Amino acid sequence: MARQIVLLRGINIGSRNRIAMPALREALADASFDDVRTYLQSGNVVLSSRAAPKTVARKCEAVIADRFGLEIAVVVRTRNELAEVVRRNPLGDVAKDPKRYQVSFLSAKPAAGVVRKLEALAAGGERLVASGRELYAWHPKGVARSKLWAALAGRGLGVTATARNWTTVTKLLELADAE
Q1: Which of 61, 93, 132, 134 has its CA 20 to 30 A from that of 169?
Q2: Left, alpha or beta for 60 (phi > 0: left; psi -120 to 50: alpha)?
Q3: H or E stretch at 29
Q4: pLDDT tens by residue, 29-71
């Protein structure tokens, strides 16, 4: 059984798309996933499954639609893929505040034109690195007024995307490694 990290897009932000983590854990366990664990309230799940990551994503989306009546996009990475995301850490030399360092996990590699448009939005010391199906973004002044962050959080990337700060990324790897 492979450890997989399931990242839900846009849940428990404000009053929309509310899912209680105990109910989510129960729903996923009922769907035959093993060792289901959640981290924080923002849709971070670590579980075990023999299925391929794309199959896990589709099954999780279906479970959430059936159980909670919500259409939530899901992006999945294996434990080894997440370990590689952490190992790469292309902005680790400049990103000193893990809460302002974000990784956007994408369902597919973004088009080169999309990456160029995102890079052009970086301002005020912001940095962006595209690496495979991840976009690493450093927001030294925070995300509140960042045009880059707004574009990363939007739906104009041409692929499903969901972002996590560096603290959450490394914690999810720890959780995936925990027995």
Answers
A1: 61
A2: alpha
A3: helix 21-30
A4: 999 999 999 998 889 999 999 999 999 999 999 999 999 999 9
**Which phi and psi (to 5°) does residue 62 adopt?**
-65, -40
Torsions phi, psi for 36 (to 5 deg): -80, 125
Average confidence score pLDDT of the chain: 95
> What string of DSSP letters covers 86-122?
HHH-TTTTT---TTSEEEEEESSPPPHHHHHHHHHH-
Q: What is the pLDDT of residues 138-165, one digit of tens each?
A: 999 999 889 999 999 888 899 999 999 9
- The residue ranges of every structural domain in the chain are 2-78, 81-177
d(CA 64, CA 74) in angstroms, rounded, equals: 10
Q: For residue 19, what are its two tokens?
A: 């899912």
- The CATH fold assigned to 2-78 is Alpha-Beta Plaits (3.30.70)
Q: Is 78 helix (H, G, I), strand (E, B) or coil?
A: strand
Q: Give the span between the Cα atoms of 128 and 137, in whole angstroms.
A: 5
